[in-house]
Amino acid sequence: MSKDAALHPQPSVEWLESAADQAIAACRSTKPTPGSSHGSMIRLLSTIAGIILVAGSTAEAQPLRIGVTMEDYDLFHQMLLRMRPIGNDLAGFITRPPGGLGAAVQTQECMIRLEGTFQDFDDRFSALTTLVALSARMKDADDQQLVTGVLRIDVTGFLNSTSISLRMIDLTTQHSGCSQDGATLAIAQEMKRTFKDAHALAQTFSDRVFPNAAGRR
Question: pTM of the full predicted structure?
Answer without folding.
Answer: 0.70
